[in-house]
Hints:
Blueprint: E1 2-3, E2 9-10, H1 11-19, H2 23-32, E3 35-37, E4 40-42, E5 48-49, E6 54-56, E7 75-79, E8 83-88, H3 106-113, E9 137-143, H4 146-157, E10 162-170, E11 177-181, E12 184-186, E13 194-196, E14 204-212, E15 216-223, H5 230-237, E16 261-269, E17 276-280, H6 285-296
Parallel strand pairs: 9-16
Antiparallel strand pairs: 1-6, 2-5, 3-4, 3-6, 7-8, 8-9, 10-15, 10-16, 11-14, 12-13, 14-15, 16-17
Helix pairs in contact: 1-2
Amino acid sequence: MYSVKQDRVRLDVFVSESWGISRSQAKETIESDGAVVNGVLRRKSGFELKCGDEVEFTPPVVRPLEVSAQNIPLDILFQDDYIAVVNKPQGMVVHPAASYDKNDTLVNALLYNLDSLSGINGVIRPGIVHRLDKDTSGLLVIAKNDEAHRSLAEQIQKKTARRIYMGLCDGNFKQPSGTVDAPIGRNVRDRKKMAIRPDGKRAVTHYKVVESFGAYTLVMFELETGRTHQIRVHAASLRHPIVGDSVYGGSQKLYSNGQLLHACVLTLRHPHTGEEMRFVSPLPPHFKDALKRLREN
């Protein structure tokens, strides 16, 4: 049982965040099996909670994994009985989806390389707590059991886990640092894209210029929230899209094989010991090569 700490919270949102499951799982389970609010069974996922409400919920039973294990090499920086930290290469999809085959994803590789994975996110996304876009490289923490998953999800929700990225952007930034606080939602004209919308979810990105090249700028980004395509959308909103990002207007002259965006630093507390852990991933070769060409010119 969990207590609600603020007014006007949707039941499915509260269940998703409190029990560490996806929003779709929360909604589906509420509308079929229900959730108990102050002793009353509720089956409307959009039911509005208020501060002080008590919510009881039984998470869905996880079915046997349907995604097959594949012998795909992984760069594993750390692993114990609770978590694994991996360095995802550019071009690898994190988990199967309707638009991708159920093969050659990070999840397929995890099933082969790790001895256990959290089952909270079901058969398609076992162990996945947060994601990176297909063409974004870098650090991901994987939950190996449900205890770890709940702890990591809470750290991300409460913003105690830090995620820092390096991105090469088009143009020359006028300000050396700043913050973009602009809500993000689905693009109404293209459902595969995201856009800044007044009715979107709050999204906050902090940025700092690292190195300027005239026509390009190397920028450090830190996520305060974690919306889909957040850095890419916010960078484009500054009129400095990520180089190689054809979806959001990034230039293709210097690099054209996906966005030059890399998750380079991840800080979190170990879900069992509470120890603060910091992981660093150097820029991958394709990113270094682009910077080398800029510096030589």
